[in-house]
Amino acid sequence: IRRITVPQIRARKGGDPIVSLTAYHAHTAAIAEKYCDFLLVGDSLGMVMHGMESTVGVSLDLMIMHGKAVVRGTKRALVVVDMPFGSYEESPAQAFRNAAKIMKETQCQAVKLEGGARMAETIKFLSGRGIPVMAHIGLTPQSTNIMGGFKTQGRDEDDWQFHIDDAKAVAEAGAFALVVEGVVEPLADKITKAVEIPTIGIGASKTCDGQILVMEDMLGLNDWVPKFVKKFGAVGAAIEDAIADYAEDVKSRAFPTPENVYKNK
Ligand code: KIV
Ligand code: NA
């Protein structure tokens, strides 16, 4: 197998930090995989790429379309595709049917789904039948309508045990890794210590076994980003500068230049 494998990611528990990003397209995925162990085709693409207000409206077909693009654009990184809201919660059988469809059509190596103890039975069902599952606990964006927005979890210590139990339940059920999103730092530390599978933090803690960010956020493509994002680039500003220069050159007929036009014989 030419790609990084699920067992290789699983074996990184407590080792060198796992580097990962979301990826939605062939071209950016090809750049990212030079540095990332795995790429996540996150359902955040509904908000980031398609202007939706939450991830609730993302369809299976949309995930498959972007999943195909990322798999085609890459050779080395493990590719994980998010299961969208409504495609897995009903029953283990529904989850298997849709996860298998994602894997067959995109050729990705694993799927991710949101939920802790309540999804344990489903995670066991899938991982026992050839589908590696990455779990996702803490702030689970598909539950935004229950939470009343994206709310950091574990601000109240009384809630910690609930999240620790979620982590243990998904690990026990056979998840190969666990995204821990939007929890207070000491809770993320406790979760990482509580399970023998790697934790992948986002808005969590540097002690997680790996980190993930939404690529567009860390690139600086959006003006506003949440506190947990560090902007490593200013790509939005770079795009705007280039487009402004282009518009100016078109209007002044400075573009196309002699090098940009074809000559006859
Ligand atoms: O959809 C997504 O981008 C995610 C990551 C933020 C973990 O689930
Ligand atoms: Na997601």
Architecture overview:
Helix content is 39%, strand content 14%. With 265 residues, the protein is α/β, with parallel strands linked by helices. It has a single domain (6-234), classed as TIM Barrel, CATH 3.20.20.60. The protein has an 8-stranded parallel β-barrel, surrounded by 5 helices. β3, α5 (92-106) and β4 (110-114) form a beta-alpha-beta unit. The model has no long low-confidence stretch (mean pLDDT 97). 3-methyl-2-oxobutanoic acid binds next to β6. Residues 42-44, 82 line the site of sodium ion.
Q: Strand order within the widest sheet?
A: 1-2-3-4-5-6-7-8
Secondary structure class reads alpha/beta
Q: What is the 3D form? A: globular
* CATH architecture assignment: Alpha-Beta Barrel
Order of helices and strands: HEHEHHEHEHEHHEHEEHH
CATH fold call:
TIM Barrel
What percentage of amino acids are in beta strands? 5-15%
**Tally of alpha and pi helices:** 11
Which bin fits the share of residues in helices? 25-40%
CATH superfamily grouping: Phosphoenolpyruvate-binding domains
Number of strands: 8
| Uncertain stretches | none
Number of domains: 1
Described by strand count, sense and barrel closure, the largest sheet is: 8 strands, parallel, barrel
In round numbers, the mean pLDDT is 97
Question: Which class in CATH terms?
Answer: Alpha Beta
Rg result:
20 Å
Molecules bound to protein: 3-methyl-2-oxobutanoic acid, sodium ion
Give the termini distance in whole angstroms.
50 Å
